[in-house]
Amino acid sequence: MALPNINTNPIKAVTRVRIWYGVLLLVMAVFGVRLFYVQVIRYGHFKNAALSDQLKQYIIPASRGVIEANDDGQLVPIVLNQKLYTLFGDPTYVKDAYKTAAKITAIVGGNTDDVAKLLQTPKTRYAVLAKKLTPDQNDKILKLKLPGIGTTAQDYRTYPQGTLASQILGFVDDSGTGRYGLEEYFNKELTGTPGTLRAITDISGVPLASSASNTEIPAKKGDDVVLTLDLAMQQQLETILAKGVKNAKAPSGSAIIMDPRTGAVKAMANYPSYDPARYFDIDSKDVGIFQNHAVNDAIEVGSTMKALTTAAALDQGVIQPSTTYYDPASWTVDKFKITNIEEDGGAGTRSIADILNLSLNTGATWELMQMGGGEINTKARTAWNDYLTNHYRFGQATGIEQGSESEGYIPSPKENGAGIDLTYANTSFGQALLATPIQMAGAMSAVLNGGTYYQPRLVDQTIDSAGKVTKHNPKVLNSNVVSPEVSKEMVPLMVNVVAKHYFTPSFDLSKYNVGGKTGTAQIAKPTGGYYDDQFNGTYAGFVGGDTPQYVIVVFIDKPTNGGYAGTAAAQPVFGDIAHMLIDESLVTPKSH
Amino acid sequence: MGPQVTRRRPRPQLPTASEFGRKHRPDYVLVVLCAALLAIGLVVVFAISPALSQAAKVSNSFFVSRQLIAIALAIVAFIATAQIPLHVWKALAKPMLIIAGTATLVALVTPVNPAYPAHRWVRLGTLSFQSVELVKFAVLLAVSGFLASRIKDETVNTVQSTFKPLLIATLVLGVFIAGPQKVHAQSDLGSMMVLIAMLGAMLFVAGLKLRTIALAVGILAIGIILVVLPSAYRRDRLTSFLHPEANCQDAGYQACQALIAVGSGGMAGLGLGRSVQAYGYLPEAANDSIFAIYAEKFGFIGCVILLGLLAALFGRLKQIAERAPDDFSRLLVCGVLAWISVQAIINIGAMIGLLPLKGITLPLVSYGGTSVIFVAAAIGLVFQVSKYTSFSAPIQNEKLIIGRQGNDNSRDGRRFRGAYHPDPSGRR
Question: Per the CB < 8 Å rule, is B204 touching A14?
């Protein structure tokens, strides 16, 4: 045959190739139509679906405001921020967990086995391996380029002054929330306004640089806070208090130095204290140590109240500084006997100065009786209650810039048929009511500064993110606590107490006015009544020249060093504080 | 004849270049189209390299350089298959089948790479390749040769000589490549479908009776249903095919993310450097899902261009098949067409939510050396065939033309330009 027999049935073969090609073209056409449907007609739907996956909103954390205080005319930071790094691992990327863990622990420390175990955690893509890496450690880790290992930066509080003023400051917990003290009170202002970043991200949430639709609202830094505290004074006060509490063999104590002319707290200390940078070391049963007891704990202030009772009686004009009376050493009120527990001089004629100097419960009760025209009655109770709550502002928060301030408690003067007269007799010498040391300092300042109650305060100024300074001026809450005359009369009465008590070293009262009043408060049992063997020692006093320049309140919790708590435990601390202020030339001496 | 006792077995009757007739200019358009597809793939891989290398923790140039090496090897393979005569390749079909089978078995017993459970890789030191690609190449040559000889024997439609061996071969392949999950960690049904499509396409062109075709299609349909239904893994993929937007988290995740990528591309696409889905949202962004990323970048317009390029490539293959010098080469070209077109359809169909996900590559475009190299090798064979095509291949009028032979010289002059067609002057 001439023709090579190659194609058995070429027509059929070629036709079939064409049929098949036709089918292919048809499929391509169907694909084209489908693509038109998906990409053009349903574009909006899929665009939204894509964005709902890809577009993520991020909170840009605002840097927390710093806290500063005055030190010899200079602003010195006492709370700053520090960037530390959290080390995490994505176990799905980690090939050799033990080898990786060993490299990590060589830099950040810790147990290699524990880290390796974390790196083998099943079903997680984020295992925190270590916290608070320093920038240096962070650099070293990142240089290793370990697969599946990364770090994130986080702001942490740092305290250049160590434990100084820790209970005033409070701390910032792991979630970035201020706890206790200033951090709690000013949490919102210190936190600032977080910014937001809306960005197209990769699947793990890292914004893509190539995306044009990223929008960013920058974070606004939190306000800086400048305290009224004087750092040198604060340091001294903490040292003196610590010594005083130890000498008194007491579990704890608090002390305040306030400028009576402005209500500004110059120093405020609690002992024991803690390190706010290591707040997490405190056992959960010991969280009481976080409290600023001078603000958070209301106590029965005891005989220091007698100075205020005297001032109230003087201001009402029912007694004069020179008034004398017969003290029977015991009054019977509501069938209960009121006696003196402190330095009882027995029955006899007593002066107003004696009431304070000898700390006569019967004397304070007598003063209350004078407010009622000679007996404790509704008039006496109402008048004294007015002084306690409206003039001295007990029973309500002072508004000092501290978290969880205690309001204290003042009993209602209304007849309750359950011995309200006895209760009120008790309040005249500081029992049966609750007040915080800061309330005591505020009231005492008002009595000594001419009769103006300034709101106790810790903040001198705040500075917002734009640098705008807001000065916190002294705030008058009551301009007529006592008359200026009474205020003047109270000074010698209180100086007399100091003069009659033993201080080492003694004060040069010709140059300085140092006055005060002790308090040995009985401690109420939770079940009612009072402990016979437990007392709080308190002291409220002042130091100054022509006028009182510092009001000092000391509280020593249940001292066990013997003697009356007020005299034996609190008074020496007051003495040391007053001497410190004088020795540091912080007090302007008398001009004549 | 007598003394020739030790004479060698007669050479099989293979068409030689001289038998094919004059060699002419090969089909360079075919090469240009393939180069265009390779370039598209390379550009996409380059553009999403930051995302890929970040996820894989390798250097930024890792994927592009790997793909460039693959393309270089593909060019070597192409030159080899284009230059080494077809009859040599035909002769190599059987040894290659044995090697491919062995490789598949090796891959079966080798621990499966947990990152790619549905792929089977053969590892030779640092080199690794997907044995199934070699299987496709070997099957292509073996079946072309087998069917060409059956055509010659006119036994294409016989059970004993054609269907039985092919069925047995298919079953053996099926067990190894897409066997039940008791045998495989995850069976490669996608590749098996491509192999069956190649086989079917070649049988179809070889002249299978229509009745047999209908029967085969029926059996295949039942088979697919039987294979798909009992396998939860595949059922998940089928479910997600039917409702890709319904469960974006589990089995439908990849299909759903692919559709989101395609849809969010819109008319003109996000632009070359602006793919977002490649950043971890869409799995296998450079390999199986590359079409979706391309669609996201270049939009509907880009997709139409890509589909057009594919259609043009299919068209060239179809034309070469039409004009193929003999049955073997025609079947070979048809096998290549089936390979590339079915794989492209399965791949793209899955990306646009029309077909279930099968985990196979888009030929020439997808990242991945094995696929690129073996597809290039197959194209090389076609390229060689294109040197011997004949325009005279008797199209629908062959009988008529043959009938007129010698009577219409002017027509002959126009139509019988090809070197392959019998010379009307009877020189042959």
Answer: no
